[in-house]
């Protein structure tokens, strides 16, 4: 197969990942499906969403850093150990190995645009589960107890929606094959039911788990951005542009709509989910209001917000929020 510039395409090393999907931007592939297409009604222009994404500035997104919250309780250690086990499994399945500075890895571990997209699609198809499960269970709990939820439900459902938008964006760049679909189906089925039962037992542990999971997501997107900026993903550097669905959702300004820019937006979202879930895990799950949905008496003091203004990688402590 020839590449876009007419030269022979670089062959990837044998890996299961090669059978997961095809890239939809290849000029010889016209069978790409439009997942969740807009309605085909004559009098319908667009479908609006209930959640408008906050506007991130380039400076804010570039300030996002890797962060880790130290485990201090048994609940934290359970959450952290689970995330590390899942990360190891995903790296093994996708044939990924991180290259340390100055280290040379075998060719089979070289990351290409195809491999990165496979990781992104699989990651985002799972990442949209926790918020939906948590929001659903808290919604049912509110109905049973006939009490207010104080803003948790909306935040969790919006998080699930945001992760689904990540997935829909990547589906504009990659079309999953049957193998990828089976992997997603199996993983989602197992993860949904496991997380459902775990949230019934310990919501605090589940939010800490998601916080640690989002730490790994920030690492993943940071490494992908570094690969692009180092020139190791030439197709994205030369030809990659963010799909229209991404431009509209993140309100991406003209001139800042490359794949690299897209990954900066998504990484910022993951950093925000990291902060939110670590913060929620620090609160009283039954009594405290959602600190991202309240109006503070003293707005001049730093407090949690939906944007990146006061981003804290390890989350906000309860004493910092409700003094």
TrEMBL record:
Give TM segment ranges: 116-137, 178-201
Pfam families noted in UniProt: AOX
Q: Is the Nuclease keyword given for this protein?
A: no
Presence of the UniProt keyword Ribonucleoprotein in the record: no
Q: Name one GO molecular function term.
A: metal ion binding
Cofactor(s) required for function per UniProt: Fe cation
One GO CC term of this entry?
A: respiratory chain complex
Primary location: mitochondrion
Task: Tell me the residue numbers annotated for binding Fe cation 1.
Answer: 124, 163, 166, 270
| Cellular compartment(s) | Mitochondrion inner membrane
- What is this enzyme's EC? 1.-.-.-
> Which membrane topology term applies here?
Multi-pass membrane protein
Database matches in InterPro entries: AOX (IPR002680), AOX_sf (IPR038659)
**Residue numbers spanned by region Disordered:** 296-323
Family named by the database record: Belongs to the alternative oxidase family.
Per the entry, what this protein does is: Catalyzes cyanide-resistant oxygen consumption. May increase respiration when the cytochrome respiratory pathway is restricted, or in response to low temperatures.
Question: What is the protein name given in its UniProt record?
Answer: Alternative oxidase
